[in-house]
Amino acid sequence: MDPTPPSSSPASPFDMVSGALADYIPRGGGAAAASTGPAAAEGDRCAARRSGRGDAERGGQEQILGAVNVDRNLRITGCNLDAPPFAGVTVAPGAAFADLLPPADVPTVTRRLQKVLETREAHVARVQRLRRDDGTELVVSMSILPAAPPREGLTVSLIAMAKRLHLYASAAAIGTSLDIGETAQSLAQSLLAWGDVAAVDLDYAVWTGEAVTEQAHERIRLRRAALVPDRAWPEGYLTPGDNLPREASRLLAGAVLRDDVPQAVVLPDREAIERALGDPRLVRALVPGDRPVSVACIPLVVEGPEGAPEPIVLGVTEVWRRPERVFRDSELLDLQELVAKTARHVDLARRHQREHAQVLALQRRLLPRAGSDTIEVASVYEPTTPDSAGVGGDWVNSFPLPGDRTALVVGDVVGHGLGAAAAMGQLSMEARALLSAGLGPGEVLERLDETVSLLDDTDAGLAAGYSALGSTCCIAVYDPVDHRVVLSNAGHLPPVLVLPDGSAATLTAQPHPGLGAEFAVREPFDVHEFAAPPGSLLVLYTDGLVEDPAASIDEGIGRLMDVVRLVHPWDDLQRAARRVVAGLAPQGRLRDDVTLLLARLAGRRGQDTATWRLPARAEAAARARALAFPLLRRWGTGDQARDSALLVVSELVTNAVRFADGPVTVRLVRAGARLFCEVGDTGNGRPRLRRGALLDEHGRGLHVVHKLTTRWGVRWTETGKAVWAELEA
């Protein structure tokens, strides 16, 4: 398309602007004479116009305008990028305009330039990035104007993003993450608009989530949180993750707390910096390179806690640039405003980090600690995200129960964050307390069902903005003597049992809705028993391990069964658990929390246990003593321990015969240096210690049991109860 011929009518506003911008580009001079090609023909030169900068300095205004002339082939014919913000942006006559752009932006900007050439319709005020020689980028507002007649080509105006505009854009972008590292990195990248290198150093308390309540200089310790640009730095220079030497921490903290008031500090040249640091080691650690440099240090400040009038310094930001670019007062005000806004986000991230640490501590506290000689356990927990917003209510636990049994519990509280974790902790602790008190799995789930309903009432639940309705739980109790598992399930995915021969099956129970589901028909929780021969592997998990949007949940459970079949009986169980999770959980960001518990069931050897079933008659106690005596002697029990065990057996059997009906079951178990004695009957009355009168002959049996045992209690069974006692062997 031919350019529009000159017109006698008044010039359009765009023609006037493009003409003025073209006049803004200097003409003539030695540089032009030495040039060849289009640039020399037009007599333009890409050189510094010093008068513009000097006028700007004298007027107290920062020059931010630049202009570039481009021919129809999109090659540069002239330019004026002398304003200080354009320092480091190099252009040459005859070079392609695309050389100024990051590679990813070339196609888009080229299309825009060509469109303006064809339509002669201006493209105004689009945010664009330019490349500097050192690899950094400059953000500008770019307008593309058709050249004013009789010129051809385009005039591109470049306005270095006004600091205020950059300030507002940065403040909006920095607060988008609650991760401390990401917040610091966003701040450092924003600070590059004022310098060549930016660093953010944060107090240790920010990283750990501790309350920052003191401002003593001796207390402040800094760690580098962010550094931009990302490039190879000299040896000894501090990079993200490095701890600042204590002297440097005190120095920076003292510098920004002059007269105990946080404020920006400027060191105008390298000599002043070296004098302030004093130690060559600190110079290597803090000063980026050996070139002349100046620095502005701006503190990250938040208001102190209530009752503390002094502000708190969370860290220090450093903006480094060439000394000829003097930090103006207006720039320092902008820097302080940006850093002040960021400080609030850093403090919020610190509080979030503290909550995150608390939630994870609670989560880890509930994970199984260790197994016993009858069961080996291993667990893996991976939250959805590394922050507390991603830490949810998934939990597994295993703990010993009276009578040599072991409880295995898995649950999933709806939601994520501190509310879900708090509900998870309450349910987990309540389940442990109820199981330890002797309640069976079904009875425990009934109590948890009531608890979830209470957690969700108007005062405790909805007012807090959180609901635990629909939470799930599965409880399994392993008996190593009978080699059986008793199971009850409230809406949770079924456990998997891998038998010693390698076959695997799910332990399915009667379906039941999740906890607190009052809208459903209230039915009792079913209890099922399954055989678990020694060497079996019991697998408990949450849905995050097996859920896949591309497959059904049954297919996910099938994949889990295929993987756990490969766990060899001699494999390290913790490594095997991590291997199972790695094989099933997706890589990268998880869709949901992943929780897995593997339990290898060893059981008790037959020679370490004995069970007798006796009729409920007066001679039952004597018969129990007669059966227990040779067994205890065969086990090598000491005389005193044997006498105590026989007396305990006699008292418990006597009580069972006196207060209950039906047969009496006596079980003795040897577990290392301990003896377990358990006497079961069909009664449902709970034995209790009571104070008797001086001459009262009744009620002394339990006092004898209490004195001779390390602990004792009652366990409820499907047919009645069992009184158990633990003694030292």
Walkthrough of the structure:
It is a single chain. With 729 residues, this protein is of the alpha+beta class. The chain is 33% helix and 24% strand. It contains 19 helices and 25 strands. Strands 2-1-5-4-3 form a 5-stranded antiparallel sheet, with helices on both faces. The longest helix has 38 residues. The radius of gyration is 39 Å and the shape is elongated.
Keywords:
5-stranded antiparallel beta sheet, 729 residues, disordered N terminus
* Helix/strand/pairing category: alpha+beta
Helices, by number, come to 19
Poorly predicted residue ranges: 1-10, 28-45, 47-61, 458-465
CA-atom Rg in angstroms: 39 Å
Task: Indicate the topology.
Layout lengths: L12 H12 L5 H4 L4 H5 L7 H10 L5 E6 L5 E5 L25 H14 L3 E9 L5 E10 L7 E7 L2 H12 L5 H12 L5 E7 H5 L13 E7 L17 H11 L8 E3 L2 H8 L2 H7 L7 E9 L9 E10 L7 H38 L8 E8 L9 E10 L3 E12 L1 H19 L4 H15 L16 E8 L4 E7 L5 E3 L5 E3 L21 E4 L4 E6 L11 H12 L8 H12 L9 E8 L7 E6 L5 H15 L4 H21 L4 E8 L2 E8 L19 H8 L2 E6 L4 E8 L1
Antiparallel strand pairs: 1-2, 1-5, 3-4, 4-5, 6-7, 6-10, 8-9, 9-10, 11-20, 12-13, 13-14, 14-15, 15-18, 16-17, 16-19, 19-20, 21-22, 22-23, 23-25, 24-25
Helix pairs in contact: 6-7, 6-12, 7-12, 12-13, 13-14, 17-18, 18-19
